[in-house]
Hints:
Elements: E1 2-7, H1 16-30, E2 34-39, E3 54-56, H2 63-79, E4 83-87, H3 90-99, E5 104-107, H4 112-119, H5 127-132, H6 137-152, E6 155-158, H7 161-169, E7 177-179, H8 194-201, E8 207-211, H9 220-226, E9 235-239, H10 245-254, E10 261-265, H11 269-278, E11 281-284, H12 293-301, E12 305-308, E13 324-326, H13 331-343, H14 345-355, H15 364-379
Parallel strand pairs: 1-2, 1-4, 2-3, 4-5, 5-6, 6-7, 8-9, 8-11, 9-10, 11-12, 12-13
Helix pairs in contact: 2-3, 3-6, 4-6, 8-11
Amino acid sequence: xxxxxxxxxxxxxxxxxxxxxxxxxxxxxxxxxxxxxxxxxxxxxxxxxxxxxxxxxxxxxxxxxxxxxxxxxxxxxxxxxxxxxxxxxxxxxxxxxxxxxxxxxxxxxxxxxxxxxxxxxxxxxxxxxxxxxxxxxxxxxxxxxxxxxxxxxxxxxxxxxxxxxxxxxxxxxxxxxxxxxxxxxxxxxxxxxxxxxxxxxxxxxxxxxxxxxxxxxxxxxxxxxxxxxxxxxxxxxxxxxxxxxxxxxxxxxxxxxxxxxxxxxxxxxxxxxxxxxxxxxxxxxxxxxxxxxxxxxxxxxxxxxxxxxxxxxxxxxxxxxxxxxxxxxxxxxxxxxxxxxxxxxxxxxxxxxxxxxxxxxxxxxxxxxxxxxxxxxxxxxxxxxxx
Length: 387
């Protein structure tokens, strides 16, 4: 099969979507498919050299010209492809694939209109309330664009039923929305014990760790407020960077947290597992999550989890079975859950043992096989057997 991939995030840029799209394209290339890619992130040092044709459009290009270039390159690639798989830069790439007369498989992992409005300070609503509330004119323009390109898709692939409900709420026909749960591109294999991992990373004592891009909806500021109440002087390690990092670092100083918090910053994905292994508790105080790779990784590594009882988290975890889930915004409940795991190691070990079960579902080949089934369906080609 001939497949064009389009993405607004791609290595060497880090993050779940970049890892997903690169490895999906690479796996299909290795399975013998003719893969092409049109992506936006720069790679001036040539750190990533995909074994398939890749066109990069610089993020430094002004938006109108950038969109025009993405349209042009996608249209050219689509004419030589059977299907276009779109994972960002949706409007120009969808229109280009439509003009080329090719099926359009659209991967939607969240609400672009909500994220755009949130980053610009145009809404303070949570994602669920945002779906139910009439917005101002500018935000409605974002929503109209999103509904437009979603309607033009042949199939919409979502990482969870939670995100699928949003997409259907935008008017997408239910039969067009397909759930393909996220999977790990590689299974972390950490041989070090928890104490050895702490020592290698320079930590002592009890450690609470979070891993995420530092956006407002990750609610890391609330985590910082909780740190003084963590049991036995536990330290919070924050792994990841993002637009909120400078403000969060200032806030930590204002709170006088000192050595109780460490901003680790961005680390290579291969090193994330070591931080998860070192942690006595992994926490994710998020107000929105489609389906978190990191929650799955924490289960694989064997770290007990506290997170919020929202969205896609419920499709990965079950409260009191393999994690502790707390109501969104209830800081007292969140702190109490963290302290339960820090002080009750029998409970922590029970959750870890249960979390190690059922992980086959998150293996990479399952995701690739399900995706290929969809691509074959929209192109009316027989699904190839895995080599």
